[in-house]
Inverse folding.
């Protein structure tokens, strides 16, 4: 079995008025930065902040009365869970959701708020999925698979219908890949509407499951990724065959690429995305020369990120941009030395965030001390100017690196 454009159009009719026809907007700033014409599909604007509502609702709407009365079960790291829980509650269908134990707290709580029974089981998605399959059989529930289901794939494909309706000039789609439901559905719709369009999937280097599934090789996985929503070790059988036929390739991004994309979307587009929601932009930023001149559609597929994690990513992004710097200064351990350092920093318009005065744990002579400063700065050039000014004032100063 496979999915056709007619299936996607039928899904669009089911979803009409039930999910948000999210904005798809041209980004002037990202276009200037990358050299491509960039269009962003804001699926983080869905009620549950993820595209997963589309496939979940299309599947739920297809159940007969008997199956709907018994209820459904789903396995998810968070976004599929919320989509199933929310629309099942709307339709009066009992829902059980199995989630990995280390799913971000915000996703667990939002799923519970929609009225689903939440079961935390397993260290990762695949262990949670195995438990969900056991419960499906034991309780006689209907499985709403997160990706390897024709109705789910067709529902996700409606995103491409909306994007190409508004922006028919698009000639490339960069799409996050976990199990493959999103990219399979979008490729099905996009290639049927516009055969010349190119669809590229994006995975993390730590979870390149689709890459290896297509190549028939054995992958090695990392312990974790900030893009936990696409940290799937075994892509779908149906999705991989669609990907093999319709998707031109899979781009890989690392954790730093994803963090940079999250910060840029927050700062430039004023929108919050989770790790999986940022991987398409991460791929564009990683290889801008590869996509230059193209009309590129990016799907911001989810916005469910823990606020504390987001705060850490923002801070790390400021470091990468040179807007937060650690500088070590050697001073004479005498009254007034630190005041001279801070006066020099004030002249350079550097704002002091933290100060650590170190006397004991140092190799310097006993008359000297080290001062570690965390500074708010403008950029990397400003940091270099600060170090040069401190040196000119008679202080040995250097920027501390990440690995110190």
């Amino acid at each position: 079995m496979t999915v056709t454009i007619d299936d996607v159009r039928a899904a669009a009719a089911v979803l009409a008025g039930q999910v948000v026809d999210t904005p798809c907007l041209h980004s002037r700033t990202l276009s200037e930065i990358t050299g491509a014409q960039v269009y962003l599909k804001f699926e983080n604007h869905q009620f549950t902040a993820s595209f997963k509502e589309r496939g979940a609702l299309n599947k739920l709407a297809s159940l007969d009365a008997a199956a709907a009365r018994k209820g459904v079960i789903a396995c998810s790291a968070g976004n599929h869970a919320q989509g199933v829980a929310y629309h099942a509650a709307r339709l009066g269908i009992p829902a059980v959701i199995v989630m990995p134990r280390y799913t971000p707290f915000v996703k667990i709580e939002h799923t519970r708020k929609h009225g689903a029974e939440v079961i935390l089981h397993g260290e990762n998605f695949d262990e949670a999925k195995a438990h969900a399959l056991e419960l499906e059989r034991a309780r006689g529930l209907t499985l709403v698979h997160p990706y390897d289901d024709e109705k789910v794939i067709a529902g996700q494909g409606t995103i491409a219908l909306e994007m190409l309706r508004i922006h028919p000039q698009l000639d490339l789609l960069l799409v996050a890949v976990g199990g493959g439901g999103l990219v399979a559905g979008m490729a099905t719709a996009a290639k049927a509407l516009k055969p010349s369009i190119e669809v590229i999937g994006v995975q993390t280097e730590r979870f390149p499951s689709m890459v290896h599934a297509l190549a028939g090789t054995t992958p090695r996985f990392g312990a974790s990724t900030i893009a936990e929503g696409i940290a799937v070790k075994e892509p779908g059988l149906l999705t991989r065959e669609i990907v093999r036929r319709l998707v031109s390739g899979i781009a890989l991004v690392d954790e730093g690429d994803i963090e940079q994309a999250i910060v840029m979307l927050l700062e430039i587009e004023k929108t919050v995305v989770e790790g999986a929601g940022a991987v398409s932009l991460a791929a564009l930023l990683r290889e801008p020369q590869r996509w230059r001149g193209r009309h590129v559609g990016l799907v911001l597929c989810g916005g469910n990120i823990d606020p504390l994690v987001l705060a850490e990513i923002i801070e790390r992004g400021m470091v990468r941009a040179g807007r937060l710097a650690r500088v070590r200064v050697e001073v004479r351990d005498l009254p007034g030395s630190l005041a001279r350092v801070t006066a020099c920093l004030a002249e350079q318009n550097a704002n002091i965030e933290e100060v650590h005065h170190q006397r004991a744990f140092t190799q310097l002579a006993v008359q000297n001390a080290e001062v570690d400063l965390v500074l708010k700065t403008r950029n990397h050039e400003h940091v270099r100017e600060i170090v040069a000014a401190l040196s000119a004032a008679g202080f040995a100063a250097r920027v501390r690196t990440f690995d110190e």
In short: The chain has three domains: 5-50+149-317, 52-143, 322-399. The mean pLDDT is 93. The CA atoms of residues 147 and 181 lie 4 Å apart.
